[in-house]
Amino acid sequence: MTAVFLQVRLSSQRYPRKALALLGDRTVFERCLQALSAVKTALHVVVTEPQSLAELSPLARALGWDVFSGPEDHVLERFVLAAREFRVTTVVRATGDNPLVSAHLANLLLARHLRKTSQYSGFQGRPLGSGVEFLDYSDDFSNILINSLEISYGATATVKIGDKLNFNNTEKAATVTITPANGEPLIWKIKASLYVNPYKGTWGIQNFRMKWDDWNGWGLSGEAEVALKMANAAPGIDDIITFGGIDGVDAAGAYYGVYERTSGANGKFGTYISSKGTDYSDKFGQLPNGKGKYFINPDNSVSVAIDGSTKKYNSNGSKTTDGVTMNFDLKASQIWTIDWNDYYGNENQFKMTYQLWYILKKQ
């Protein structure tokens, strides 16, 4: 079954209650409902959360829409639960703050999506706010493809890349037996579980640190707080970084959500320009200032794209977190242009930095 899922809530941080803002004689939300009612699907469902349900439900039901309420802070789980509830296999995803969404474009792409048996379809080059996206959904975990497999030298496994595992059981588990070159076989139990986003929340910066080494053994090595080495970075040490909940999955398989870095109590952002005028933003600025999206990539790295920019900042992401404190690792490639006239100076330390990490604390 195919359904339009209109994603909407009233607790947006950037523009609270935006969906109920008046646009002419109707709210933005009502204009979305009316436009998307023309999309040729079996169901039309507003997917929202408990705090918004009471105000949105009457408007939706008046226009013949079903309503589903799910977890406030996990959009993706909300969609999964709605798909299960209505037994949907193809979702037409739209958002409740795009009053100019085009049902005509949606119907054209829907026909193509179903004809091509695609798992994901979206628009390129259309006016912002006029498009939707299509995703196929299945909770059949009986044939999960193995894309990669690494075992020790000389060992053998009961599965190989390209095989499939069956998680369709009460434990949501599958077993794999590994036999080492010398020793007894080991039975590994693999469990499938709902993804928990370690980044979601608002974080204060406790520290931003760097390690450097040119590996020559001549003393150009050490560890320090970035702000003590690069004065221009100091104003940013009290910035606030917010990772929103997961809003969806892109065509590359990356989870994405809203990202924002705002200035702290001093009202200033830092920069990564050294005292000699060298701009190290690409290396030190992978959690950039401003609003945009963050992406949790299939390899667990994290990318950030700021609104209005085509650039993506790529980092390694979180390696350790207890839910309160998080070490967030950046990607730090060394720059092999050593200034031999100031061998132990800060400039060479920035170039030879091979590890950069934030220590963040949840607010």
For the largest beta sheet, what order do the strands appear in spatially?
14-16-17-18-19-20-21-22
What Rg do the Cα atoms give? 25 Å
Instruction: Quote the CATH topology of the largest domain.
Output: Lipocalin
Low-confidence stretches: none
Helix content percent band: 10-25%
CATH class of the largest domain: Mainly Beta
- What's the domain count? 3
- Tally the helices: 7
Mean pLDDT: 91
Question: In the CATH classification, which architecture of the largest domain applies?
Answer: Beta Barrel
Q: How many strand elements?
A: 22
Main sheet: strands, sense, barrel: 8 strands, antiparallel, barrel
Beta-strand proportion: 25-35%
Shape: globular
What is the first-to-last residue Cα distance? 42 Å
Structural class: alpha+beta
* H and E string: EEEHEHEHEHEEEEEEEEEHEEHEEEEHE
List keywords for this structure.
single chain; 34% strand; 22 strands; 3 domains; 7 helices; globular; Spore Coat Polysaccharide Biosynthesis Protein SpsA, Chain A; 363 residues; 17% helix; eight-stranded antiparallel β-barrel; Lipocalin; six-stranded mixed beta sheet; alpha+beta
